[in-house]
Amino acid sequence: MPSTPNPSKPTTHTITFLPVGRRLELESGHSLLEAARLLAADGSDSVDAPCGGLGLCGRCRVRILEGPVEPPTAAEKRLLSAEDLADGLRLACQAVPRGSLRVEIPPEVLASQPFLQVDGQPLALEPDPPVRRLTVPVRPTGTDRPLSVWQQVERSLSEDHGLETVRIDPALVRSTDPLAAGTEVTLSLYEDEVIALHWTPPQPPLGLAVDLGTTKIAGYLVELETGRVRVAHGIMNPQIRYGEDVISRLSHALAGREQARTLARLARQAIGQLAAAMIRRLGCSPAAIEDTVIAANTAMTHLLLEWPVAQLAQAPYVAASTAALELKAYELELDFSPGSRVFLVPGMAGFVGGDHTAMILGSDIHTLDGHVLGVDIGTNTEIVLRTPAGMFCCSCASGPAFEGAHIQHGMRAVQGAICRVRTTPDNALQFSTIGGRAPLGLCGSAMLDVVRVLREQGILSPTGILDRSHPRVRLGMGDSTPEVLLVEAAATGIGRDIVITQRDLSSIQLAKAAIAAGIALLLDRCGLDPHALDQVIVAGAFGTHLDLESAVAIGLLPQLPPERFRQVGNAAGLGAQRLLISRQERRRAERLARSVRYLELAAQADFPSAFARALYLRPMGSEPDPD
């Protein structure tokens, strides 16, 4: 006899909001604005809705990325164009889900922006940028001197400055009145090519350093002649709407030329918008940017340039090219100085890209003595080991768990995210949140803390299994999945219990194991014991904020004295800055990328056993052999 639905239990849909990485259950019949308001802390809406959700202002725009939703209402047809609707845009106050959805909140309506790591170590380097300034005399064009401004420039550079070959960027010629009217001009030259012309005394030339990550994009405006960082800023990578990991985006690009073009356009527009936001703070135009360096992982480089990606999405994961690349900014649709260049940092292998080269330079790993391990933790984690015999690297598919993906109450590092977890003397849990606000969920650093605490209290076994007999372990509502209550509903900013489930713990365990196995195999190939490491450098946003004691306790990082660890922030961003202001650093980057030896983990016969050992949640090196 068929079962009848339980009328007391309403149907719910899982709503995942990007870029904050939050997911929640929404009862059937409720709008996305009501779901978005559940993301709020301290009563503030996570979506800007000035009209209070009446469908009058059109400000609460969101984009439906995946899943079924009720047809557009009359208010949406009035306030959104046909093109907007075709692009997935809807009004959160009007859109009602029919099932589970993935929804993007555009930056302009997102009330709580994610915390983006853009800082790093101070930039200490003698500037020697490829861009330099020269001032040359000109005379007005006339019958007595029938020479254009460019003819006079070429003659002066040759006769007065000894430049045997003078090139002028065609875009600059196209955008400049050829008739000379003043008495002198200031030129910006990239090596021997004129890339900008100024009739009035210009401000010092600016360069843009970009760390183009899978999740975040960090940018730095730098004075090329002094190396001074004027502005730093970060935004989310808008490609995230097509997947939180690179494999999902590569799959989208493989669907067709238009899909690949869309991903390239999103990345290029994001870099342009990031630069525009920073340049406005200086009161000048994007044309002031005369040089750019982009450090990106291999997949992001391919998607930015619309390179072939089929060979990158399947074994043996071969990059189309890992060489340094130099092109004009306008080739990437960047509206900077007409002839300005873009230098893409060389990579090393299929999933060890220019961002890793930049990280090594930014953290000075290549100059350090002894045995040094560098770990840049992210959706894809790159690891480098420097030894007296040379440098070796590998890449680990650690996945987006530390960014909050696939974790029931996981989220990115935004206001209200739990970032630290400790125990009180009576074994109660103590939390710290970003901004000191009521907790909304867990960001990556807190996840490691929770695993450590559960292990210390005997709630979680070394193999990652919750003890169902423990009084703090309960079964989740609606299924039999074990979970641990972390914060009761009354103390949260979402009005519901915040928990960590057995499935969550398994996702964290897998991410941790991928990194730990990569470290173990690199050390093994070099014949080193973890205790032989003189220094461990931890880079990246997640690496900067994780608690080293928790990382060591659960076996993510080697068990070493605290003084051997150094957290360096966004070292890839710092490396990009160094490359921006130094021609010598660019040459060094190319030599470095060629010299580091790459270890493909998937091709190692002992990787499965190393991964199995790394699954144990205990200090590295103390794992028993798996049965």
From TrEMBL:
Residue stretches making up the 2Fe-2S ferredoxin-type domain: 13-109
PROSITE patterns linked: 2FE2S_FER_2
Database matches in InterPro entries: 2Fe-2S_ferredoxin-like_sf, 2Fe-2S_ferredoxin-type, Beta-grasp_dom_sf, Corrinoid_activation_enz, Raco-like_middle, Raco-like_middle_sf, RACo_C
Entries under Gene3D superfamilies matching the protein: 3.10.20.30, Domain of unknown function (DUF4445)
GO MF entry, a single one: iron-sulfur cluster binding
Name of this protein: Uncharacterized 2Fe-2 and 4Fe-4S clusters-containing protein, contains DUF4445 domain
